[in-house]
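Tutorial handout. Part one gives the primary structure; part two gives the three-dimensional structure as tokens.
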Amino acid sequence: MTPTMIPYVTNRGGPLIGIEALALQGIPADELLLTRETEDQLADLAGNAMSSTVVGTCMVAAIILFSKYLDGAQDDMEVRYDAHVTDSAIAEVGDDLEDRIIGQDQLASKSLDLAELSDISVEDILSDAVKSSRYCICEGPTGTSKSPTLLCKACAHTRCDDCSNRPIHEYEPHPHSDERLDAMTFARRLKSVLPMRLAVEGFSLNDLEAAKSNTKASISPNDWQLWSKLVVKNLADTEFHFKSLDRKHQWNAIYDSPGASLRLTLNKDKAVWLLFVKAPETDNANARRRRLAAHPVARLIVEPAAKNLLEGVWSLQLPSLEKVKLEIRGKGQLVPAWEARLGLQQLPLQDAKGNSVDKIDWQGKKQWTQLEIGFHDTQCHQMDVDITGTYNLHTNCGTAMECLHIKEGNPNVSFFLDPVRVGFRGDDPFVFALDHERLDYGQERVAIAKLDPNWRPMPTDLQSSMIVKAEVTGTWLEAPSAAMTPIDAKMADGESATCAIPDRPLRLDAGQDACTHANALLVCKVPLPHADAEQLWSSVHELWGEIELQHKGKQAFEALAWITERLPALDSLKQWAPVPLGELHHDDDTSCCTRCAPSPPELSWMLRMNRLVPVEDVVQAGEYERVS
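Part two.
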């Protein structure tokens, strides 16, 4: 908020506009017809609204806060819901839809290879991924900033010169600033070398039990039962379909299935596949099974020398929980802490009765510029990444409480405060991780280890070595039986996937009732192992389904991306095609088709301020604007 009480969007650098205000209220602005409203009117609409999503959030927050007073409330209890209520992007329609689609005889059928896996230079792919990734938030999903690009030499954060004000970081010119590649061009190349359908194997109960017998990691029997059943059930005969590419500071390819997901991340030195399973929707937010599902089940590391993006060694992560003790000691110099840099004054503390008990001198609070971290005992702990060493403080690189510490040498492990998404401030732990960037909603950080949430780097405690409790979640083991392969499925009649597109200009009809029929431009036939293999078809039991583009278009085409990304271009539509007009007459208004060209809205006249003002019929105006 600015001093004049105007909401200010810091990452965009401007005041809150009307569309953003509606989104913050939970109103689906992209589904509304907002063509005549001014910015002030949109802001007023958002300010005077109380949407069901806002009310629902308040109700859920109240239930969470007072859950301990509810009879029978437990963290692991399931939520009841109607299994027949679905939110599918495709709706079932009658058999008459097939009669309304014409022109399939003008289409030429071709084979559609959804399992193609090209041999490529993975090293070149990784190099191009770095040059085409998003260097600044202003670039969005596909853009490239025209300003020079900067790279923080401390934390490797990137920004363009126009957006490099806050946090200030330790910027220097980016080495690839003059070698940027177009994001759309790289996206097309990446999708061309990835198979659209994948299957994983080697995660049966026997495989999991065999991996468990090869480790001495501490695994709770209850966690093992929950985790192993979830993995075996969700990965048995499952099929992963390509969903989308996500361009952030790294490129990610997302594959999805009803019970699991795959994510391919392209780093500068290697490509990593992560396999996740999904917790049931009936599990509440604090259910133990949901917390176990937040961690990857397995990973595949693809080295630069590999021949394709599926070649590598699989590892399995068992749901272990190790309690370790770390020794942390302050080094270097004492510098003002973040409270002192913000200019906070002395704060009197009070007890439960309101009596003053102490004062905190924020202005005099200090912190060490270096931390020396090691294990308290000499026992060799099996950790995926070595976290011991000297960590340097980088207060200019953001993160919560400006407490980012980065380890000297390789690997570049980050040590910082990582607030939980939902909870109290006492639940926020310091974590060790390879990535300290902000996460989007729904993403979970893969932490190497977490410290006791009560620990904070107080300088008086760190003058000598301080013992701190930490948790290491998960144990990685090689999984020789695991594999991932493209799926080349065939339909019941033995045919593979096909697509039919026009090979010559279409013959179109513009007769009086031509708009009651639709000309087919594309027909795809793709085999599915069963109806539940794709959530898009879960609500369709007949032959035809219809997509409501305005509300469900994005959801539907994301679910169909594994098919549409391999479709050939419709080059024949670039050519002009003759259209016979038939018996169309335009001698009077009654001959016009109101479906294609609705009549202008009727006008009514109102007396306002001693003046006659025209007012349109709102419903008719909406139909007229949608078509025109």
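Part three, for discussion. DSSP finds twelve helices and 31 strands in the chain. Residues 267 and 535 are 31 Å apart (CA to CA).
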